[in-house]
């Protein structure tokens, strides 16, 4: 009997030891959990920002190409050869400035010959005018002789035949005067013809000098020194720097957000570039397909919408054909509450921020947004200028009531 009881006790001893150990382990775990649960949470270092009163914009950035309107293509006024091109693309020109000369030496020779003929005709005309004067004097003498003879004929002192001969001499003198006057008239007509021919030759020579019709900029020179040209051959193209435009190709998504007359800022692509203000002047009413040499390229490129920005004032420095950056202002608000965009988070579509309360703890606060800019966002409600907003750290995630400490700047 005693042996049986002793064997049962020996069998139960391991189970009792294991149960006691498990109970002790559980007690220790519970104590550790309670310790960790009640241990003070370490403060999370954060960066604080404050809302500010300021301006905010919603913009689109695009690239564009500088273009000059009012373009004029000068053509060759005659056939010949280019003697000298005096300008290059990009040069600014004044109205009346000589841009190009054509070689036309035979016209200079023709002009010299024409001037010589004119001088000869002038000399001939002067001789004919002298003849007129002489003929008039001779006619006057013969008429006076007839007057003197008239009384003598009446008195019978001279024969009537002598009087008739005098009448014949008067008729001859008058004929000589008429011939001289006719020769002068013909000479005057010939002189005018020679002068008109001279003007025609001079115009041909003038046509060999191509001058600028406007104060402009040389956009393209199509010929070189020594090139032969036909009548109305394109020589060079000028643009009007007072009509400065930016041509753009917008995506259909951006084009849907842009309207005519919206503010635009144009600058050269690069750091510290000067900004030129303008307005959206035109927006094409439909999208265009890009030109491509084959169907594969056509499918790989998206449709675009042409748009034009006109500068308020000519820049005087932008180079036609150059690529520039265009910032189009879609919306603009002034003197509103703005906040760093990094501070705004969203939960199920509702924007919110973390603010620091009086106990240096993080608290979640819902806000309403207005315009969202590149770096800042407009706060329309839910926040005021006195509150300090937390830039959420990556780790650990913020929770309501979590202690925070401000990072040293």
UniProtKB/TrEMBL annotation:
<keyword id="KW-0812">Transmembrane</keyword>
<dbReference type="GO" id="GO:0015562">
    <property type="term" value="F:efflux transmembrane transporter activity"/>
</dbReference>
<dbReference type="Pfam" id="PF25967">
    <property type="entry name" value="RND-MFP_C"/>
</dbReference>
<feature type="coiled-coil region">
    <location>
        <begin position="177"/>
        <end position="211"/>
    </location>
</feature>
<feature type="domain" description="Multidrug resistance protein MdtA-like C-terminal permuted SH3">
    <location>
        <begin position="335"/>
        <end position="391"/>
    </location>
</feature>
<keyword id="KW-1133">Transmembrane helix</keyword>
<protein>
    <submittedName>
        <fullName>HlyD family efflux transporter periplasmic adaptor subunit</fullName>
    </submittedName>
</protein>
<keyword id="KW-0472">Membrane</keyword>
<dbReference type="GO" id="GO:1990281">
    <property type="term" value="C:efflux pump complex"/>
</dbReference>
<keyword id="KW-0175">Coiled coil</keyword>
<feature type="transmembrane region" description="Helical">
    <location>
        <begin position="12"/>
        <end position="36"/>
    </location>
</feature>
<dbReference type="InterPro" id="IPR058627">
    <property type="entry name" value="MdtA-like_C"/>
</dbReference>
